[in-house]
Write a structure and sequence with these properties.
alpha/beta, Aspartate Aminotransferase, domain 1, 3-stranded antiparallel sheet, 43% helix, globular
Length: 334
């Protein structure tokens, strides 16, 4: 097992949130920002995943391969730049990887921010996870060669690496020391830092941050406003969700050791941090968007799976999800 590198952002007060932009079925460009509403003197960090690349479009493992952005990826980067500009963001320094899809995204964002004079550093530590022999292959081709279960394990687990590549733990082993040595000191000085990199290099950084904002960003506020407008136009949605929650609680009642929560958020208490994250990865590999929640978000010793019910699923999906949870936790002490 590769060693994990843990860090805690606690030298200076600053906060975080995550907003993901989705186009079609694939997550495209994500922004994670330390909002500018924090107290005076605190650093501001904005993390941005690059726009869609040619390999993303072709559903290929990219890793250290170096394809450019697609025309859609260019539009995504411009859109994020405009959003940040409209929100009043400005920066003292920017970091990106040595790969062109991240560098292109950064330059497009800086152009929209009218900030091309901002110092930019291209860093190998921020490169995407090395997918080894998977790099350049389509996901279907990889599954045909190694099997769906093995490929899912390489993609979702924390410490299992694909042949000739890196695990997420190994990726964190280079990104987190870089964050501590180069970015954290700037934030402690109250600097505003923009990082444009890759899904896994950013994921390893975000996983290490344990101070979170409760204040919504402008993007979140807009999304909430639109959701409220939809509810006004389609009031039956609330009753449909209420019915789905009631159905789910009845189904849960058939399984021992799992208490219904009374809401659309269903916590499944696991206890150990590592076990909760392993279970979440296994369920995600089976197609269920179930997240592991660890301390300090929840009390020590109560790491859990968080299952959120929405109208995007139906009764058959609920039954399949519950069966998957039972199968993956068979043998666990409850």
């Amino acid at each position: 097992m590769a060693p994990s590198y843990q860090t805690s952002v606690n030298k200076k007060p600053f906060v975080t949130e995550v907003v993901r932009s989705r186009r079609g079925r694939k997550s495209s460009l994500a922004v994670s920002s330390f909002a500018p509403s924090v107290e005076r003197g605190a650093g501001v960090l904005v993390l941005v995943r690059h726009g869609e690349s040619e390999f993303n479009k072709q559903d290929r493992f990219t890793g250290l391969k170096d394809p450019p952005l697609t025309s859609n990826g260019v539009r995504e980067a411009i859109e994020v730049g405009r959003t940040l500009q409209a929100s009043g963001f400005h920066y003292d320094v920017a970091f990106t990887s040595e790969l062109k899809r991240a560098q292109q995204s950064l330059q497009l964002i800086l152009r929209e921010l009218h900030a091309r004079s901002v110092p930019v550093f291209n860093e190998a530590a921020l490169n995407e996870r090395n997918y080894g022999e998977l790099a350049g292959m389509t996901r279907d081709a990889a599954r045909a060669r190694w099997g769906e279960e093995r490929v899912a394990q390489w993609r979702r687990s924390y410490d299992v690496a694909p042949p000739g590549g890196e695990s997420l733990a190994m990726t964190a082993g280079r990104t987190l020391p870089f964050f501590d040595e180069r970015i954290r000191p700037l934030l402690s000085l109250g600097k505003r830092v923009l990082v444009v990199a890759h899904g896994n290099s950013l994921r390893s950084i975000v996983m290490s941050l344990d101070i979170f904002a409760t204040a919504p960003s402008p993007l979140t506020a807009v999304a909430v406003r639109e959701a409220l407008l939809i509810l006004q136009e389609e009031p039956d949605r609330q009753q449909r969700l209420t019915n789905l929650v009631a159905f789910t609680h009845r189904e849960i009642g058939a399984y021992g050791g799992w208490r219904p929560s009374g809401s659309q958020i269903l916590p499944y208490i696991v206890g150990e941090n590592a076990r909760a994250m392993t279970l979440a990865s296994a369920l995600q590999a089976r197609g269920f968007d179930i997240r592991g929640i660890r301390p300090p978000t929840v009390p020590a010793g109560t790491a859990r799976l968080r299952i959120s019910l929405t109208l995007n699923v139906g009764k058959d999906d609920i039954r399949a999800m519950l069966n998957a949870v039972i199968e993956e936790t068979r043998g666990d002490a409850r």
